Amino acid sequence: MPELPEVQTTVNGLNKTVRGLTIRDVWSDLPRARVARADYHDTIKYAPFFEHFQKTIHGAIVVSAERRAKNILINLNNGNTILIHMKMTGHLMYGDYMLDTKTNEWAPSPDEKNDALRDPFNRHLHLVITFTNSKQLVLSDVRKFAKVTLLSTEVAHKTKHLDGIGPEPLDTHFTAKEFIARLATKPKGKIKSVLMDQNVVAGIGNIYSDEALWLASIHPLSITSKIPLDMLENLFRAVRTVLEKGIDFGGDSTSDYRQIDGTRGNFSHEHNAYRLKGTPCKKSGCKGAILRIVVGGRSTHFCPLHQQLWK
């Protein structure tokens, strides 16, 4: 699942490509249901909502894009905001696409010179927003889990989609003291699971929790309340370091994620723990090897030698 760095990289790309553009048309093959269900009645997977979505954003101008946790917010000049959560396998791209009327599938047009958009990972297109410059913003999502909805910009952050999410770890006003206080709300939790709890801190998932814990020398099974204060301060710094590095390297494309131009992010080449089972630990002077366990149902990678366990 795209985490904070991948979502922020996408938002940065949106602000460079679609800001100021006018929406001409919207296409999607997701709206199948005409019976409302609690899990999708206010998303474009519910056909009547998609019809509302189409009408509301038609003719609107993109004002800006921003991120909240793992959510992308595309703000429009008509007072509405498109919220996209990419879930497991979703990513957004911008380019010159065309619809094959025989198959009802979109693909990069012959005039599109960016071959990265033709990557097989980029062909599962389920939402296409066309602008008046005849280019498209597309959502590729092989598993079709992504969430797309429409909110009033004025109250977007107070809706169920965003309300209750923890503070942003890269916010300049977010301190180590506040970070430790947030962790303390789950005193009996395993630190790996607590880090990934979006109600505790926003945006951290499987990849960056593994990397931060490796960097801070903390075992993922450590009980939050048992970890010494100085180690929690180390973890705060480690979280910020790995998230900032993830953004600097354009996100992580170990799985399906791609940047706005269809290219891979490069953070996957910077891993110290995630998906490195059996490899020698990269920490200077450490003779350990990376192990894999499951914590809270999630695959977890760590070094059992230098990552200390507090229970």
Helices, strands, pairings?
Elements: H1 4-17, E1 23-28, H2 47-57, E2 62-68, E3 71-76, E4 80-85, E5 90-95, E6 97-100, E7 105-108, E8 125-131, E9 136-141, E10 147-152, H3 176-183, H4 191-196, H5 206-216, H6 229-248, E11 291-295, E12 298-302
Antiparallel strand pairs: 1-8, 2-3, 3-4, 4-10, 5-9, 6-7, 8-9, 11-12
Helix pairs in contact: 1-6, 3-6, 5-6
Give the number of domains. 2
Q: Structural class of the helices, strands and pairings?
A: alpha+beta
The helix/strand series, from N terminus to C terminus, equals HEHEEEEEEEEEHHHHEE
Largest sheet: number of strands, sense, barrel closure: 4 strands, antiparallel
**Using only CA atoms, what is the Rg?**
21 Å
Measured by DSSP, the beta-strand proportion falls in: 15-25%
Determine the N-to-C terminus distance. 29 Å
CATH architectural arrangement of the largest domain? Alpha-Beta Barrel
Fraction of residues in helix: 10-25%
Give the neighbour order of strands across the main sheet.
Answer: 1-8-9-5
The number of E-state strands comes to 12
CATH homology-level superfamily of the largest domain: MutM-like, N-terminal
- Write down the CATH class of the largest domain: Alpha Beta
What is the arithmetic mean of pLDDT? Answer: 96
What fold name stands as the CATH topology of the largest domain? Answer: N-terminal domain of MutM-like DNA repair proteins
SS element count, helices = 6
> What is the general shape?
globular
Low-pLDDT windows of residues:
none
